Amino acid sequence: MKKDNILEVDNLKVSFKTHSGEVQAVRGVSFDLKKGETLAIVGESGSGKSVTTKALMGLLPKPHGYIKEGSIMFDDKDITKLKDKNMQSIRGKELAMIFQDPMTSLNPTMKVGKQIMEGLLKHQKLGKEEAKKKAIELMNLVQIPNPEARMKQYPHQFSGGMRQRVVIAMALACNPRILIADEPTTALDVTIQAQILELMKDIQKKVETSIIFITHDLGVVANVADRVAVMYAGKIVEIGTVDEVFYNPKHPYTWGLLGSMPTLESDEEELFAIPGTPPDLIAPPKGDAFAARNKFALEIDFVEEPPMFKVSDTHYAATWLLHEDAPKIEPPESVKKRIESMDHSEEAKR
Amino acid sequence: MGQEKLVEIKNLKQHFKLGRNNVVKAVDGLTFDIYKGETFGLVGESGCGKSTTGRSIIRLYNSTDGEVLFKGENVQGKKNKSELKKFNRQMQMIFQDPYSSLNPRMTVMDIIAEGIDIHGLAKNAEERKAKVYELLETVGLNKEHANRYPHEFSGGQRQRLGIARALAVDPEFIIADEPISALDVSIQAQVVNLMKQLQKEKGLTYLFIAHDLSMVKYISDRIGVMYFGKLVELADADELYKNPVHPYTRSLLSAIPLPDPIYERNRNRIVYDPSQHDTSEEPEFREISPKHWVLCTSKEFEAYKKEQQNSITN
């Protein structure tokens, strides 16, 4: 493993056995996570982003979901090879997860304080009194007012935003080195979402964990991420720093994602929508999986899969358009306009 | 846009009794007009009463007080069957969740044709079929889909079915209650484009209810912002985003995450504190500049006005 990497995922393939055949949900994903950084994984539902994180956590539904190939290196160990029991000592302690829906990820019949203490008692072997103290500390950290009283309440007595704070407190209980957040703000209102995002960034500074942030909202990505990986049909199609991916996107799918969100300034007649729907992963298409929906597709896209082309040291994209022999194709007007308009806002601030 | 009023909502109230001495005022005195051919966006956080408003307008709830006039006639109140039918044909609804709003045991043909059957819009089976095929094509699906069941469709396709069903009876006014929030980003754009195109072709009027402010801005001509059952600000879409006046609107706008990393790094979020208002005076809905309405007290009104003028002269 490289020195400043905390996690290295190499050629990860995850499949599910179903009645109609093998669903290849993740089809060869490689990325690494550096210490203290936030990596956002974006993509549509079914792109494999959640399955990737489930594989990281060892939470694939057994026996029909399984890792077919590839490795996940954490702490110089390949955690795909670990036995359940060993995985249990890592999960929740070194790797913690925040789920999308705070209503279903909390136990409705258990007091909130007890749920936060659970991890402390199990992993850190704290005494009851100590655990209680730590739980109050954690609730203060996630800014839940009046923690002593709130500890004795049940989840239904909390609002959506407060519940998500509880879930974050639980995840942080054992000072995890990697925090995986699977759409943590999707179920929340914009104003509450903004609060939770601020809180997560704040906490990251304090406790120095690395975060993998799964979302489909590009606005949220721009807010939290240091680096972005764009996933489509079980593969990473573009990866780079936020600035690279937002200001210099290379993959037509990234163009489509950016173009299908209206800007507040834009008054174009039509949004740049991606036509069609994602492919069926029981029988993934030959060549580039995105080709059928891509109006910039080249002939080769239907025959051979594009490798990752290097754009810069940190920026890679899997599209044949980056091949030296490919015709020069510019991003669609609406995407270009959007990027230009963002550049102006940058000048204005200086 | 003609300024002909299609729907007038006057002091609409929808209260829910939750038991003794416990009344939820989901919608509390709402007044606004929707003009013919426009898209009126209604935004607010969950629980602010925006969906309840839509449902009250179309009579899914019986309103507690106030009236809804559709082309000058009251929608609310007691009606006989034929009167109800008349309104139901003119007003249709598209629901948020494309999974629960389509009957899983009915074929697409029957789902879409239900309205046609009820209103007797097709003379025979042949015509009924032709109408359904045409509707499917209008929303970007094809004939072969007519004999399938809802579970065979993706979320975006189901939402198209919901739109086809609403269009089946040739309505003039469609209430779309968060029609895209359950869909993926790329599919959202498809559905929004479709809705815009249909509006142009058929001269439809929309009430578009959503919490996604950037999409609402994009699709709406005018926008109303709701907070706790009340409209706090109402203006043309551009005006609202350029010159938000009410502190709640400002906080809501400042919370929208934009796909622009540099903007996000420098973002200043405004936090809304309801206690900043003077509660000694009942706030009223006042016109601060032409077609821009804000809920405020007389003192706030003066202050907002001054601010507004300053920002224009600058």
Automatic annotation (TrEMBL), chain A:
Its main location: membrane. Signal peptide: none annotated. PROSITE patterns: ABC_TRANSPORTER_1 (PS00211), ABC_TRANSPORTER_2 (PS50893). Residues 331-350 are annotated as: Disordered. GO terms for molecular function: ATP binding; ATP hydrolysis activity. It comes from the Bacteria. It is a peripheral membrane protein. This is Oligopeptide transport system ATP-binding protein. NCBIfam families: oligo_HPY (TIGR01727). SMART domains: AAA. Residues 7-258 form the ABC transporter domain. The keyword Membrane applies. Pfam families: ABC_tran, oligo_HPY. One of its GO terms (biological process) is peptide transport. One of its GO terms (cellular component) is plasma membrane. SUPFAM superfamilies: P-loop containing nucleoside triphosphate hydrolases.
UniProtKB/TrEMBL annotation, chain B:
This is Oligopeptide transport system ATP-binding protein. One of its GO terms (biological process) is peptide transport. PROSITE patterns: ABC_TRANSPORTER_1, ABC_TRANSPORTER_2. Residues 7-253 form the ABC transporter domain. SUPFAM superfamilies: P-loop containing nucleoside triphosphate hydrolases. GO terms for molecular function: ATP binding; ATP hydrolysis activity. Keywords: ATP-binding, Nucleotide-binding, Transport. InterPro entries: AAA+_ATPase, ABC_transp_ATP-bind, ABC_transporter-like_ATP-bd, ABC_transporter-like_CS, Oligopep_ABC_C, P-loop_NTPase. Belongs to the ABC transporter superfamily.
